[in-house]
Design goal:
The structure is a homodimer of 435-residue chains. The first copy, chain A, has 435 residues and is α/β, with parallel strands linked by helices. Chain A is built from 16 helices and 15 strands. In chain A, helix 2 crosses helix 9, helix 5 runs parallel beside helix 6 and helix 5 packs across helix 7. Chains A, B: It catalyses: L-histidinol + 2 NAD(+) + H2O = L-histidine + 2 NADH + 3 H(+).
Chain lengths: 435, 435
């Protein structure tokens, strides 16, 4: 193992802004070959339906099957998977699901309506989507928490059909993942992965229903497919590698901070962990903790690669200078490991999730604090929000004009529509004047 | 002029579902040449900045300029454009802006926070985006209402910088459009069109600021560019041609209904106008009104092409059967030209805007009722919402765990994180147990 060589910057030093910008820079590669490959897979699923899914199961998941029955997980199978888990896991999943459900229930929007001074009834009717798709990656880690975080907001919104797709390499699917589906209201499950899963959910096949929106993380095939079906269905945000920004006043155990940085870095070689402090001595202590703890970690190679590629320590003169750095970085996860973190909230404009105080580890939010762990990455907290109930509700405007109101507003419509050269619009309102 | 030949279907007749599906079907063409052309334009603007914009102004807008000054509209120029309008237009713009502002103010989300039974502070902090871009097409019609509908929700959200881009073919820009910017809180304006305008707003140049989100309608270049910069910035929905679905019990003046259908059809040859009634005689009367009124219309050719391509009358046995048709069609605009339209609301799950009663013409909503006229098209009301204040606010999750709460929840995190093979996550929570 090579040694840890995290980048170290001092705010105010010459070239700081450019160095920070270089460190933060991340852009997904839009590969024309990948686009074409994914477009072909989508086309094949649209035209051949189930048969295409059966072919791809053998080809991409090394799981040859005769029929869609083998790619369909029944409600009984999902429940059975839960029952096979040990009690500690069952309980932990239930606690997480309940806490996530409770937090998200606060996000529910309600319809509203009022009558204005002209007698126009105006309002907004809020309804749940009918049917949504949740994609859950296969691969190394069985992402049970991902199932809960993607499905539960849909359940809370009142979505009737929550359809999960997850690949079963060699026919194997994790009980832990299915059990998470059990506690979070998933209503159907198919063993499908990659672009073919996204295509099936977007367009439907003989067996798989088409859904209104598809959410959930995935590899480049999945992300590309989601972008390609956007518009036919809704999708959640476009996610980059995960990141954490820890701001610490130097009074937290440096081992804790090192581990918090690791908990981000262990995700992938391009995950990003940043630490800001006004205390140079403390930064050195955290570096020592990193070097001490790293060899003990199961994912030490990934953590080392991530820290050396994209890890960053920033020394500031005054801790409060971190606030503008936070807004520049717009981090996915922000840990305020300081006294009185709430006093910072007013100044923080852009962050996916804010963890306040030394005991609020990011991991708590990843699993069971309550808020969602699907968060905007790579600075997109400037305009994206955490996944939430609002992602599964939609709104219809309500407009009810009395004869009197149509009479009063008709001339306004007439002037504006004629100004835009849209005379049918104008006449349609003019007919209702003096009626 | 050829004669009107709108399609006519009877619910329940053999082949109805397929015929309806065929009529509704619309898919944007994703053209590889267009994708490449737009990608090149974006790249050129990213690398050359202002200079690229100056080149494109000459090339695409027949407007050769020496510097960005000629492509920049000052606040004084915007105000002057408003002052040059006649009073009727000034007043109409002000009434529309005020009504739109008032309705949208009801959409503002507030931050919230609570402490749960374990002593965990949980919440959602809602903030406005810093800077957004509004694209306003040039072309035949000066879309003043489009400026109001796109800018006002951003203004109400509290966005500080609202940057408008609109092309100036031959250097000409409409006073009406600039005046609309004046009444709706636009803070900067550049005379830029097409993919180059979107690229400038997404990435910034020496003169044009980069924004967080870009909204507004546009041609295929604009739509393609918006899709390509999505992720770097937020964008609003992907819009298809405009459509209206009118449901009428036969008791509204058939001329009114014909004109309501025209007001959609006059937008473009692929706009869609659909009428449902249980009264075959009334449908025939509307057809007669269409034939009578069409020759008097300024955009008769476009209306005829639209009605003959995509126009549709549907006869149902019972008027209430229209409700399930509405949900299948998920129309952008829905006119309920019936008695007691509010009694239908519970059954209607998918529609962009619902116009209730005979006096509520769609045109009223297009200009000044208050709700937004940027609405989900082509059935996407199943998952998209009208443009609103919520499109310009974003959320940050808040999590503050006490030592006690970290102690209680730590074991849950530990079990779940270890189940997912993420041991740094687990340890980061375990450190905080029994502290």
């Amino acid at each position: 193992m090579t040694s840890v060589a995290m980048k170290y910057l001092k705010l105010g030093e010459s070239g700081f802004d450019q160095s920070l910008s270089d460190m933060l820079s991340w852009e997904s590669v839009s590969n024309a070959d990948m686009q074409k490959l994914v477009a072909d897979i989508i086309h094949h699923v649209r035209t051949e339906g189930d048969q295409a899914l059966i072919e791809y199961s053998a080809k991409f998941d090394s799981y040859p099957v005769d029929s869609m029955a083998a790619l369909t997980v029944s409600a009984e199978d999902i429940e059975a998977a839960f029952n096979r888990l040990d009690e500690a896991k069952q309980d932990a999943l239930k606690v997480a699901a309940e806490r996530v459900e409770k937090y998200h229930s606060k996000q529910l929007s309600e319809s509203w309506q009022y009558t204005d001074e002209l007698g126009v009834v105006l309002g907004q009717k809020v309804t749940a989507m009918d049917k949504v798709g949740i994609y859950v990656p296969g691969g190394v880690a069985p992402l049970a928490s991902s199932v809960i975080m993607n499905a539960m907001p849909a359940k809370v919104a009142g979505v009737k059909d929550i359809v999960m797709a997850t690949p079963a390499p060699n026919g194997e699917v994790s009980d832990f993942v299915l059990a998470a589906a059990y506690v979070s209201g998933v209503t159907e499950c198919y063993l499908l992965g990659g672009a073919q899963a996204i295509a099936a959910l977007a367009y439907g096949t003989q067996t798989v229903p088409s859904v209104d929106k598809i959410v959930g993380p995935g590899n480049a095939f999945v992300a590309t497919a989601k972008a390609q079906v956007f518009g036919k269905v809704g999708i959640d945000m476009i996610a980059g590698p995960s990141e954490i920004l820890v701001v610490c006043d130097g009074k937290t155990n440096p081992d804790w901070i090192a581990m918090d940085l690791f908990s981000q870095a262990e995700h992938s070689h391009d995950a990003q962990a940043i630490l800001i402090s006004q205390d140079a001595e403390f930064l050195a202590q955290v570096k020592a903790s990193i070097e001490k703890l790293l060899p003990t970690m199961e994912r030490a190679d990934t953590i080392l690669e991530s820290l050396n590629n994209r890890g960053l320590m920033i020394e500031v003169a005054q801790l409060e200078q971190a606030i503008e750095l936070i807004n520049t970085i717009a981090p996915e996860h922000l840990e305020l490991s300081i006294d009185e973190p709430e006093s910072w909230l007013d100044g923080i404009r852009h962050a996916g999730a804010i963890f306040m105080g030394r005991h609020s580890s990011e991991a708590l939010g990843d699993y069971c604090a309550g808020p969602n762990h699907v968060l905007p990455t790579s600075g997109t907290a400037r305009f994206f929000s955490p996944l939430g109930v609002y992602d599964f509700q939609k709104r219809s405007s309500l407009i009810g004009a009395s004869a009197q109101a149509a009479n009063t507003l008709g001339p306004v419509v007439s002037v504006l529509a004629r100004g835009e050269l849209l005379t049918a619009h104008a006449q349609s309102a003019e007919y209702r004047i003096n009626d």
